[in-house]
Structures are given as C-alpha cells and as structure tokens.
C-alpha cells in the first residue's frame, strides 16, 4: 500500500536484451580484422612462417619511412637549379610534412594499440608510433604514388613500379605484424585524400613568392 514507485536498477545492472545491429556488425568486423591480421603476419618474427623474409620486409619498411623521404626531398630541393623542379620538390616536401602531422594527430586521437604479435624493432620511432591506426607507411605510399604519377614524366614500366612499390609497402605492414588490415586500408584512403589537399594548396611562385625567394 502507499503506491510507492519501484526503485530503478542502475544502468550497469540492466541486461541489454536487444543490442544494436551496428554494434554487433562493428564487433564482428573488428574480430575478423584482428584474426585475419594475425594470420597474415607471416613475417612478424624470426620464428614466423616466413620469418626468413623478415630482413627484406624491413628494407621495404625503410623505403616507406618518413625520415628518408623528408631528408631526400629537402636535399634535392637544396641542390636543384631548376625553378620547375624546385616547385615540385617544395610541394612534395609540404605533402610529406602534412602526412606526418595528420597521421600523428589521428594516432593520438584514436590510440589503437599495435597488434600483440608485433615486435617493436622499427626504424626510428616517435612517441605516437606506439599506436597503430592509421598506418603512416600506407598513407605515405598512397600520397607519394599519386604525387609521382601526377608530376613526374615516367615511362609506363616505371609508373607500374611506383604503384607496385606502394602496394608492397602497404602489404608489408600487415606481414611484419606492425598493423592490422584496417589500419592499412584507412591509411591508403587518408593518403589518397591528402594528395587532394596538396593539389588544392599547391605552392607556386605566384601564390607564395616569399617562400620561393628562400631558394
């Protein structure tokens, strides 16, 4: 008697009888991603299925690292005596620096840990490199690939080699156990999109004369 209303249970004590379809789908995709990435990590360690190929994979890893690309581009910019080449190299340097900053920001926000089977022996890492999402190598590979194909005059075989390099660098990230597949896929999409930003903000003597006066 008295008509007192029942006290509601705390939210954590309530059983969710109807979980959302989106939640189930995302959880399933995440589980598939982790499972497939671990199965494909055939070079994650010396004792892995393709452990003997690990040194080669690490050479490929260095070929997509940001530091060699930034230093090489800066050196070429300093040595170039052609105004057209300086313009292309300056924008490539801008693209590489933009890529490094964007990947660091996304990694710092998402903070997805690297795969458990990854061996942390990467070439020159910084604080955010302990995180996995997205793959900076894949982002850089897609960005550089689009940039080179657009602004360098190359024979067809060389253009094919550039595309193959981008694909091999991206695939090697999963094979080495550095990243999950979704890290690499998002990295490729991000790199592809960043190239559009570089084209939109293209640096030229007409738009940034003070910058070109330095060279």
From TrEMBL:
A GO term from the CC aspect: nuclear inner membrane
Species the sequence originates in: Malurus elegans (Red-winged fairywren)
Higher taxonomy: Eukaryota, Metazoa, Chordata, Craniata, Vertebrata
Gene (UniProt): Plpp6
Main location group: endoplasmic reticulum
Lipid metabolism is among the record's keywords: yes
Membrane topology, as annotated: Multi-pass membrane protein
Protein name: Polyisoprenoid diphosphate/phosphate phosphohydrolase PLPP6
Top-level EC class as recorded in UniProt: hydrolase
Catalysis performed (reactions): presqualene phosphate + H2O = presqualene alcohol + phosphate; presqualene diphosphate + H2O = presqualene phosphate + phosphate + H(+); (2E)-geranyl diphosphate + H2O = (2E)-geranyl phosphate + phosphate + H(+); (2E,6E)-farnesyl diphosphate + H2O = (2E,6E)-farnesyl phosphate + phosphate + H(+)
Pfam families: PAP2
Nucleus listed as a keyword: yes
Swiss-Prot/TrEMBL GO biological process terms: lipid metabolic process
PANTHER family documented for this protein: POLYISOPRENOID DIPHOSPHATE_PHOSPHATE PHOSPHOHYDROLASE PLPP6 (PTHR14969:SF18), SPHINGOSINE-1-PHOSPHATE PHOSPHOHYDROLASE (PTHR14969)
Keywords of this entry: Endoplasmic reticulum, Hydrolase, Lipid metabolism, Membrane, Nucleus, Transmembrane, Transmembrane helix
Record-listed E.C. numbers: 3.6.1.68
Listed GO MF terms: sphingosine-1-phosphate phosphatase activity
Residues of the Phosphatidic acid phosphatase type 2/haloperoxidase domain: 88-199
Cell compartments where the protein resides: Endoplasmic reticulum membrane; Nucleus inner membrane
């Amino acid at each position: 008697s008295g008509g007192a209303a029942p006290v509601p249970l705390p939210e954590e004590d309530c059983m969710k009888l109807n979980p959302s379809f989106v939640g189930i789908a995302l959880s399933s995709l995440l589980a598939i991603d982790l499972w497939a990435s671990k199965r494909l990590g055939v070079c994650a360690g010396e004792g892995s299925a393709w452990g003997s190929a690990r040194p080669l994979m690490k050479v490929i890893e260095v070929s997509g690292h940001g530091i060699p690309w930034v230093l090489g581009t800066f050196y070429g910019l300093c040595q170039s005596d052609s105004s057209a080449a300086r313009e292309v190299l300056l924008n490539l340097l801008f693209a590489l620096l933009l890529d490094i900053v964007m990947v660091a920001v996304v990694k710092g926000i998402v903070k997805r840990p690297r795969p458990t089977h990854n061996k942390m022996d990467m070439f020159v890492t910084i604080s955010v490199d302990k995180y996995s999402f997205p793959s900076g190598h894949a982002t850089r590979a897609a960005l550089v690939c689009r940039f080179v194909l657009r602004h360098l005059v190359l024979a067809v075989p060389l253009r094919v080699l550039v595309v193959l390099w981008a694909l091999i660098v991206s695939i090697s990230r999963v094979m080495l156990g550095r990243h999950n597949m979704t890290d690499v896929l998002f990295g490729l999409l991000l790199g592809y999109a960043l190239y559009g930003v570089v084209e939109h903000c293209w640096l030229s003597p007409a738009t940034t004369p003070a910058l070109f006066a330095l060279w």
